[in-house]
Amino acid sequence: MDLWFNERHSTDVNFSIKVKEQLVHEVSQFQDVDIFYSEEFGKILVLDGYLMLTEKDEYIYHEMITHIPMATNPNIKNVLVIGAGDGGTVRELTRYQSIEHIDMVEIDEAVVRLCKQYIPTTACSLDDKRVTIYYEDGLKFVRDADPNEYDLIIVDSTDPFGVGEGLFTKEFYGNCYKALTDDGILVNQHESTFYTEYANSMKKAHSKIKKLFSTALVYQAHIPTYPSGHWLFGFASKKYDPRTNYNPDWWNSLGIKTRYYNTILHTGCFAIPNNVRDELRE
User: Fold this and answer.
1) Catalytic site residues?
2) Which entry of 9, 12, 34, 77 is 20 to 30 Å from 193 by CA?
């Protein structure tokens, strides 16, 4: 009998992947954590029935959420990552020797533990000496953070319901603003406009961020296993415009080998299509 993982993308659309085996199922304090193996996509991390990553295309998401802000400001030293229990965002950040410290706040210890055991391709840098992991609520952590503490905050969260709901609120974005330095950058996963439910979440989040930051933009990537395949990120900064205030020569001199991001794509990904522009205008 064939085993299939099905994810609901809308009331009328399901996305399916043929699964060879279920590697682990654990009910944590916060959510159901599943890891499957697929011949096509490799290891698959699923939280409460929603696909978080596959080994085949996770690099797209993790490269785009990290290298865009890092190439914009080469002076980033202190970074806060909210969520990201799979470790992929931290993996990309630790490739920069210029970063001195990374605080990672993940509410669910089970996600980190199981990814270390079953998906080391993403969790391989969580033991880097510059990384400190806090198992607590990201909303509370940012509320209690010192002003001007971080050069970069990356919100690598789940969708805006369940354990991730608080990370899409006005209070959370306001506390991020206070925790950032005067030239600080905030990057967050920004959902998609293709399906109405996701579009509404994106518009609400973007409108809240725009009221706080002088620069608030949206950029895009193609991630095949995410709903619609067309995924968005938010870039907000007190000082920098990533389309003009970025240093391609510096970034290229680092010799970081990437599979998706490059400095030409860096500016191109901000050229969003009209349907997304229209949604943002609303």
Assistant:
1) 156
2) 34
